[in-house]
Write a structure and sequence with these properties.
Keywords: DNA damage, DNA recombination, DNA repair, DNA-binding. By secondary structure, the chain is an alpha+beta fold. Helix content is 25%, strand content 26%. Among the domains are: 107 residues, Beta Barrel (Ku70, Chain: A, Domain 2); 71 residues, no CATH class.
């Protein structure tokens, strides 16, 4: 069963408007979560904010946001002041512009959400906007208040629905040239390329979501199940990783790799 929507509002393009619902496209509900307990009593341990100087607990209504401007010096901002600088409407995805789908690099993508029509009457308007983006290869750019912050969002067609991606802020993405700029631009040895391509071909497989399963999660669930039954499951000792060795001859290493790939396939 599809999860309930966590946001409802409107998708708007000029004078065309339709009601929509949104739900995060990813979830961590199935992940193993732990609480911190008091080992002696078995009771949960709760956290609270305390004054860094006096050590006394601070009530919720006495807590305020602070921007540091010097050592032990802060500018205080009330929640109402922070909320006042946000968008007037937090319930309308007004598409301000369109850009080519391939012009936004993946590194700007933050969180994906599923956007669906929320009213049978509005399905036609929703479908027209979706299909027009698909036909032109464009994605929409808008702004929206989500997770208590105003964010740029990208909307793109996906099957019969729309994916809404929150986009990272401009100061969150580091310039790759600062890290890749010093890597030498020498041409790769033409004799090595076919060997590496052969290795790639040998390892090609169709995508399968099982490729990103979490083995640690599975082992944790095994331990929890054993403890529920009163059994003590011994922890597996981790094998020591083999020490890395410097590759002296890349050609020899590639040939050995291809030979080992062939043997593993035969077996």
């Amino acid at each position: 069963m599809a999860p309930r929507s966590f946001w409802k509002g409107y998708l708007k393009l000029s004078l065309v408007t339709c009601p929509v619902a949104m739900v995060p496209a990813t979830t961590d509900n199935e992940k193993v979560k732990f609480h911190t307990l008091n080992r002696k009593t078995g009771n949960r341990v709760v956290s609270q904010y305390v004054d860094a100087v006096s050590g006394k607990a601070v009530d919720d209504d006495e807590q305020v946001k602070g921007y540091q401007r010097g050592e032990d010096e802060y500018v205080m901002l009330e929640d109402a002041e922070i909320d006042a600088v946000g968008l007037e409407s937090t319930r309308t995805i007004d598409i301000e512009m369109f850009v080519p789908r391939d012009s936004i690099d993946w590194i700007w993508y933050d969180k994906p959400h599923y956007l669906t029509p929320d009213d049978p009457v509005g399905e036609e308007a929703f479908s027209v906007i979706r299909d027009a983006m698909e036909a032109t290869g464009q994605v929409g750019i808008s702004r929206l208040v989500m997770y208590r912050r105003e964010r740029a969002v990208m909307i793109e067609p996906r099957d019969r629905g729309i994916i809404l991606w929150t986009l990272r802020y401009g100061d969150e993405v580091r310039d790759h040239e600062a890290y890749f700029g010093d890597i030498k631009k020498d041409k790769t040895d033409s004799k090595l390329m076919p060997l590496v391509q052969k290795l790639i071909d040998e390892r090609m497989k169709p995508w399968d979501p099982k490729m990103v399963d979490d083995p640690v999660q599975d082992r944790l669930l095994e331990i929890i199940a054993a403890k529920k039954k009163g059994k003590k499951r011994p922890a597996k000792s981790k094998a020591e990783p083999e020490p890395a060795t410097n590759v002296i001859n890349i050609m020899d290493a590639l040939k050995k790799s291809i030979a080992s790939e062939g043997k593993s396939k035969k077996s």
